[in-house]
Amino acid sequence: MDVSKYKALYLQETGEHLSGIETGLLSLEQNPGDSFVLDNLFRHYHSIKGMSASMGYEPMMLLAHAEEDLLDKLRSGALANSEEITTVLLKCLDTMKTLAERVRADEPLDIDVSALLASLKAAAVGQAARMPPAPAAALASGGQGLKLSSVMKVEGRLFDELLATVGDLFMTLSSFKTLTHGSRSVEFKNGVHQLGKTVNSLHDTIIFARMLPLEDLAAGLPRLVRDLAKETGKEVSFTTEGMDISLDRTILEGLGSPLVHIIRNAIDHGIEQTEERKKAGKPLPAVISIKAVTRKDRVVIEVSDDGRGIDRERLKAKAVSRGISAEKVESMADRELLKLICLPGLSTAETVTSISGRGVGMDVVKEAVESFGGSLEIESKRYLGTKIIMEMPRTSSITKALLVETGGEQFLVPISRIEKVIELETKELETGLYEYAGTQIPVVSLAAAFGIKTESRLRRTLIVLDIKGTYGSAGEKILAGLVVDDFSDEIDAYVKPLLPPISKLREASGITVLGDGRPVFLLDVPQIISKTLTGRNP
Amino acid sequence: MEGDKLIISLGSGRFALDTKAVAGIIEQEKLPFLPGRSGFVSGIVSFRNEPVTVIDLSGALGDFTETAGAGHKIIILSVKGRLLGIDIGSSQVSFIWDEELKGRTTGEKGLYTSGRIYAAEGPVDIIDWQALFNETTRLLSTEDHA
Q1: What share of chain A is helix, strand, coil (3-state, %, to 5)?
Q2: Which residues of B65-101 are buried (b: 16+ CB within 10 A; e: fewer)?
Q3: Do A508 and B35 touch (CB under 8 A)?
Q4: What is the mean pLDDT of residues B31-52?
């Protein structure tokens, strides 16, 4: 496993522990039996031992382990502290600092720590601690000036505030850009251009700082799978793919609960008991897998299980018992039907367990995914398994979008969805289908979908979009067309989340305020097209 | 029910809003479109770079036809980070100060009103803007499958 990417974190954490050890040892000289200080020191050594073992930094791990043993005896009262012991621990501390410096400089950790280990072992069995000579390398680096870590620990909230501030800057910039259209001042236009470059650069830096790999989130999932499998008496293995893909910290955090809900559901209700799988000739252990891939500036995360799949007849019955008309349920397309499991309180589980089955979960999952401008799809094959597909933006806030107009109203369409923008004669779009790249794609009028009145026009704009993620299954692109009156600029929009009372709008995933003060919605195009086509072909 | 009140004359009715909730009043010729708008929800505007959902007060409170005229006068309400715009058309606004309210308010409630002021010029209903906000949220949350 490549651990080099964790080096900065290791150094930052270790630096804090070493600093805590120094403070503790000095405090211990004043109060040799202070149990609070001894407990803290033990924790510091224990943490360094664990982290160093994980990273393969053996001398550091050996020293921390021996020191931990010694501290354990001191805090249990099996050994009395002495000035000699503190001195040995301080010498060890110097060597550990040197080792940490070598890690930072990517130098080999070839410092001989055997004398220090011998002294620590002797002290731990109550023999007078010998004063070990400090390792040569440690001496060489001794007496160096005070240094601060190059890695800073910053509260995530600070980055949230920074990003919000950059968002405000973007909106101010948008106002200035609007002003440049009516200005003859070249200096002013150059200034606004330069300001734009600076704001973009600032934004990129903040976004980069906020990105974390999916691995950070997925690291805790094997344990969750293991514990749930044990609890339910099932045999389950867990695999991941694409966990090196990075997402904005806020989005990654928001994915935590959905992933846990999905895995709980899969183990509790999807995966069969061992005997049932054997009878069905299914392999053991069952497999739950998470696969992530990038698609333009979005990430698609698929959580699959090879369990029994969703029982559609049971789902229909549950939906009817919840008050949805049987006629409507029967007329639903399969993907719409499966999405019913996202209705609050609707679970197809036969029994409620401590893990899941109360119908609390998939509605929360859908809401969480959509709150970040993402979409959720469900695929399921009876007796073969279920796949939950979440498509999310990789970063929040600034979105490249195309400004479009229909019936005098303006909207934003995310660039990441757009395949092509074509101006056509209106009559070419009247059939509801358009031939694009050799296939007939469905065409939806935005004005019709929203009930906006438009004047008759000879020509309109067709935006060909990839609506995969909400409409259609995994694999190739799913194309559809959205008809608008016209389009104008591509802009970097600072997209704000939809807050109450508009937080549940299904047709938009966010909103921005343009430079002239106009609020404009970022359209949830797959949702609009899906809804319209469902109504067109029930 | 204490505190200064902003009074809206809406046709034959008069309504009061707590001035502490009023963040500003803006005028706009046309309201940008709000997808999924229904009932008395009429559109969206921006106020200090924040989007604000706008409702039509005459539609919300019943058959109070405002004075005909172009444009929209929108009162922006803000409490605890929640924003709501109340479109009063071209209706006039005035004020009743706190000291004028003494002994004149009652707890008579309506669907979207939380009390009544018996002012010298006639009764004034106090708008329960939280109730309006909640109803606006409900109107914009209708699920297809519900």
Answers
A1: 50, 20, 30
A2: ebeeeeebbbbbbbeeeebbbbbbbebeeeebeeeeb
A3: yes
A4: 90
pLDDT digits (tens, 9 = 90+) for A166-199: 888 888 888 888 888 888 899 999 999 999 999 9
Residue B56 counted as domain residue: yes
Task: Round to whole Å and give the CA distance between B75 and B137.
Answer: 18
The residues pairing with A387 across neighbouring beta strands, listed in sequence order, are A304, A379
DSSP sequence for A384-414: TEEEEEEEEESS-SEEEEEEEEETTEEEEEE
Mutate to test the interface with B, among A346, A502, A511 (most CBs of B within 10 A): A502
From A243-257, B59-73, B76-90, B130-144, the region with the lowest mean pLDDT:
B59-73
Please report how many Cα atoms fall inside a 13 Å half-sphere around the Cα of residue A468, on the Cβ side: 16
Residues in chain A: 538
Q: Distance, in angstroms, between A20 CA and closest chain B CA?
A: 42
- Name the domain count of chain B: 1
Q: Are A513 and B46 an interchain contact pair (Cβ–Cβ within 8 Å)?
A: yes
Residue A485 · residue A456 · CB < 8 Å: no
> Which of B33, B46, B50 shows the shortest C-beta gap to A409?
B33
Per-residue pLDDT reduced to its tens digit, A85-102: 888 898 899 999 999 999
Which residue from A468, A442, A414 is spatially nearest to A533, judged by alpha carbons?
A: A442
ipTM: 0.91
Whether B125 maps to a domain, the answer reads yes
Give the Cα separation of A222 and A200 in Å (integer).
Answer: 39
Residue of A nearest to B50 (CA): A513
Closest CA to B88 of B33, B25, B135, B130: B25
Q: What is the sign, positive or negative, of the torsion defined by CA atoms of A77, A79, A83, A89? A: negative
Cβ(B58)–Cβ(B11) below 8 Å: yes
Q: What is the domain-level CATH number for residue B42?
A: 2.40.50.180
Q: Residue A81: which region, alpha, beta or left (left: phi > 0; alpha: psi -120 to 50)?
A: beta
DSSP state for residue A496 in the 8-state scheme: B
**Enclosing H/E stretch for A445:** strand A439-445
Tell me if the pTM is above 0.80.
no
Q: What are the two backbone dihedrals, phi and then psi, of residue A302, each rounded to the nearest 5 degrees?
A: -110, 125
For residue A363, the model assigns a pLDDT of 80
Task: Report which DSSP code applies to A268.
Answer: I
H or E segment and range at residue A421: strand A418-425
CB contacts, 8 Å: A328 with chain B: 145
User: How confident is the model at residue A271, as a pLDDT?
Assistant: 94
Which residues are CB-contacts of A256 (< 8 A; sequence separation ≥ 6)? A217
CB contact under 8 A, B53 and A508: no
Min Cα separation B49/chain A (Å): 6
Burial call A159-174: b when 16+ CB within 10 Å, e when fewer: beebbeebbebbbebb
pLDDT of A237 reads 93
Considering the domain boundaries, does residue B146 fall inside one?
no
> Do the chains contact at A506 and B36, CB–CB below 8 Å?
yes
pLDDT level of residue A423 (50, 70, 90 thresholds): very high
- The parent domain of residue B129 ranges over 5-139
CB pairs under 8 A between A and B: 63
Kindly state whether A504 is in contact with chain B, defined as any CB-CB distance less than 8 angstroms: yes
How far CA A425 is from CA of A270, A422, A435, A437, A460, in Å, comes to: 51, 10, 14, 18, 6
pLDDT at A488 over 70: yes
The number of CA neighbours under 13 Å toward the Cβ of A369 is 28
